[in-house]
Amino acid sequence: MATADDVAQEIATAVLKALPGYTNQQNSFMPFVYGIARHKIADAFRAAGRDRTQAVAAVPELVDAAATPEEHFLRRGKEIALATLLTALPQRQRDVIILRFHHGLSARKTGALLDCSDATVRVTQHRAIRTLREAVFHGHDKE
């Protein structure tokens, strides 16, 4: 947020920059300066209205975002289960799933890497997801 000193400095700078274009007329200098000041003050109020930050007396403590051993164990278990499911897919479908979801590539870029069209990538992705979904649901039925 701009302080009054900051706004006054901006006004003075703007007046100095505008002076070469100023034409002197009788009693016109102060209205000229007031016009510049009015615009700069309005800009400062607009900027203050957009600023949603709040000053605090002390820096808040940071939350430890590191995973607990239990969370790490569960995440690792999910990774192993996903890797097992991916090995059940044909190589082409596995490549599409990895490129699209792990690497975040678009269908067009994935198709360029696999030397096929983006429509082929989408169909292959759909079939791979359907196969994975069936494997997951069948796995739950067995338990």
TrEMBL record:
Keywords (A to Z) from UniProt: DNA-binding, Sigma factor, Transcription, Transcription regulation
Molecular function as annotated in GO: DNA binding; sigma factor activity
KW Transcription (keyword) present: yes
What's the domain of life for this entry?
A: Bacteria
Any keyword NADP? Answer: no
Supply the SUPFAM superfamilies for this chain.
Sigma2 domain of RNA polymerase sigma factors (SSF88946), Sigma3 and sigma4 domains of RNA polymerase sigma factors (SSF88659)
Under PANTHER family, the record lists: ECF RNA POLYMERASE SIGMA FACTOR SIGD, RNA POLYMERASE ECF-TYPE SIGMA FACTO
Q: Which family does it belong to?
A: Belongs to the sigma-70 factor family. ECF subfamily.
Q: This protein is called what?
A: RNA polymerase sigma-70 factor, ECF subfamily
Q: Organism source for this protein?
A: Amycolatopsis saalfeldensis
